[in-house]
Amino acid sequence: xxxxxxxxxxxxxxxxxxxxxxxxxxxxxxxxxxxxxxxxxxxxxxxxxxxxxxxxxxxxxxxxxxxxxxxxxxxxxxxxxxxxxxxxxxxxxxxxxxxxxxxxxxxxxxxxxxxxxxxxxxxxxxxxxxxxxxxxxxxxxxxxxxxxxxxxxxxxxxxxxxxxxxxxxxxxxxxxxxxxxxxxxxxxxxxxxxxxxxxxxxxxxxxxxxxxxxxxxxxxxxxxxxxxxxxxxxxxxxxxxxxxxxxxxxxxxxxxxxxxxxxxxxxxxxxxxxxxxxxxxxxxxxxxxxxxxxxxxxxxxxxxxxxxxxxxxxxxxxxxxxxxxxxxxxxxxxxxxxxxxxxxxxxxxxxxxxxxxxxxxxxxxxxxxxxxxxxxxxxxxxxxxxxxxxxxxxxxxxxxxxxxxxxxxxxxxxxxxxxxxxxxxxxxxxxxxxxxxxxxxxxxxxxxxxxxxxxxxxxxxxxxxxxxxxxxxxxxxxxxxxxxxxxxxxxxxxxxxxxxxxxxxxxxxxxxxxxxxxxxxxxxxxxxxxxxxxxxxxxxxxxxxxxxxxxxxxxxxxxxxxxxxxxxxxxxxxxxxxxxxxxxxxxxxxxxxxxxxxxxxxxxxxxxxxxxxxxxxxxxxxxxxxxxxxxxxxxxxxxxxxxxxxxxxxxxxxxxxxxxxxxxxxxxxxxxxxxxxxxxxxxxxxxxxxxxxxxxxxxxxxxxxxxxxxxxxxxxxxxxxxxxxxxxxxxxxxxxxxxxxxxxxxxxxxxxxxxxxxxxxxxxxxxxxxxxxxxxxxxxxxxxxxxxxxxxxxxxxxxxxxxxxxxxxxxxxxxxxxxxxxxxxxxxxxxxxxxxxxxxxxxxxxxxxxxxxxxxxxxxxxxxxxxxxxxxxxxxxxxxxxxxxxxxxxxxxxxxxxxxxxxxxxxxxxxxxxxxxxxxxxxxxxxxxxxxxxxxxxxxxxxxxxxxxx
Length: 950
What we know:
β54 and β55 (871-878) form a beta hairpin. This protein has five helices and 62 strands. Helix content is 6%, strand content 43%. The longest helix is centred in the middle third of the chain and has 18 residues, at 492-509. The protein is mainly beta. Strands 20, 22, 23, 24, 26, 27 and 28 form a seven-stranded mixed sheet that branches. Strands 29, 30, 31, 32, 33 and 34 form a six-stranded mixed sheet that branches. It has seven domains: 2-140, Immunoglobulin-like (Sandwich); 147-289, C2 domain (Immunoglobulin-like); 302-426, Immunoglobulin-like, CATH 2.60.40; 431-635, 3-Layer(aba) Sandwich (Collagenase (Catalytic Domain)), CATH 3.40.390; 658-752; 760-855, Immunoglobulin-like (Sandwich); 861-944, Immunoglobulin-like (Sandwich), CATH 2.60.40.
């Protein structure tokens, strides 16, 4: 007997014998010469109505397939007939209102002229009208052949989505076959696609690789296998389906048979017919029978574009769905299927696979980092960098905008499919960071080079450009001089004291919430059981100079990241994924001769697992990207900081400080009591209040009447922490007599404050002659009584400013004595400078002030961010004007001006030879500072010893 199949393709209805629409039952029967039924097909337009003079696709249904196999030897026949009824879902011979006629054609398995595309009809209805025409293809099925067939789904062409505007669309692909010829039965969904959740539109071509884990499938086929495709649209549901849709866009039932060349190669399924009888869509794909021997047949099944971490083969995030940053070293990883089954000799492995990458039609090309051994795709280990074909793209080639990659793999004469992928590279955002170096007791502060060497590694883990001259803007405080403290930082009390000082230093400088202050102590400073600490609500933190992951961790807190749940930290982000606190997806470092992969089980940067080996996970990559973007937008217009100018005269006797706000800070202790730090009037306005916190701080009168309040967080940093710090800024209230912390409205702790500001007099300097503007100012003051009882001991802050109110500084904070020596030599220049001593008695704040004195304009400083090469990175800093970047920075090479400007310079652009490089920074006052950087090898870009005789 001969195996045959009939594919019923279209039905045209001339006359349905009803005035409007009606329901139809179409029946086809295959019989042999004796009248024995061999196969049947039926169709009723999915229980929907039909009309006169319409053509309908007899699209397949898994329950009612339009491709019908049957066995026939010699002569046979196929009969089609149809019935209509207004009420019956399946009108038939026994239940119908109208008979649309029937047509029969003879077929013969031995005679090719009786096969092929057949037209049944036109039939004649029971009222003598022309009824229907059915088109079907009848063909012999080739002798069964078992093979592994690779399906690659490529594009979707949409003709009509049945909506007037954009809509959501979902496509579902399923494979089905019985067990045959030694191959197992197949009944599985291959692919579902919804354009990554984005809307689609008419008359457009879409790639099926968008938003799907893979579009490449290897199937073990023993014979004809049905490929079933259907699609739906819905304006509001991103995944319309048979259970919830507004429009049905049609379906296709096709056959792939490894023994039939007509079902292999480049294929086109469609166009389908929508439920409004329009052309819906068509799908393009390829089907390839893999070689039966162990010869390679390479196939790229997917391409990952990654910089630190990337989503790949996930359900909740589409492939390459995490943001990609311009100016950042990038790794393109191609996943290769060897095309050889694991049961072949060598387990399907193919050694020596190479490849090429082309970006933007040849704007950049690269060979693979190394040859790899390709394997069956199921054996590829994503966590092993050597299992993928890898292509490095240097940071300077990763420009903002859309980038199109084409990747191909080769081994011997075998060439893989060209895999084309388009991604977006987003312009880098900018971190605004206050630089603070801290000396602790007799241990000196880290050098500027040590500070920048640590913080310059943030791009390893952060979604910012690698060239920190474009992605980090450094702000210096207090003339760039270190802060000196004598706290025991191995104890929580000392750590909190340092954080208090950092916050008070930050207070005058930060005019917007975009800025963060990060301080570093020397690596030898004992820190107890911590490596760093931060207060996100106050935008300050610190850590040891040599701990790069700690620096990224603490700054991560300052950008709103909470802990990942690994290592038992406090303040865990309850939404973090995965719930074990790992990075969740494979991470990479694209740099170096060989890129590095970090397995998905690596501890997330914000966890306590993995120490300096922590990496940034997919959850925090996106969250940090969004937080930096928000902060960068807020700081985009940052310039010289300006506050109201001081009183223009000498103020030897204290008067109220004019700050319109008051900074309130304290800590909730484990025993439920509250420690209050001295509140301080300030120029800095309140920041956005925290959400979902039970705590509030209020300013009240003695009788408990609240004048103003704000929510605060009070979070214990560690499980064994003694205190949970809190803080906020509120509008200053002259009548306030109590500071109160409440939880859910109930008072937790309160501080009663004096009714007036402290009385302080300035002892020295009291005239211009006492001020050495080229040296150190010796400040002396005294707290005195007034008309009231003796004031409580005040806390003091030394503040430097000028008549314009620009570039304020707090070189002295939280002082309890009555003197301070202020080095004037690095402070910003101005013709009228002032130094204030600010005093607080716990709430009310007063100040005294020196008379005006001139300081010369200071030349700009050059911050040596990275000077070892090959990429030299510096930034200018003007004491008067703040950060200097862009055209303010110029370079000379071997004594001649370079055309390059800006904060970075790639030495490798110079070519062979040893070159002497200097950098120059010019401020708006035309003052220039030059820094000789030394000699560099123009090919490697590395710093070298000077040539002999120099």
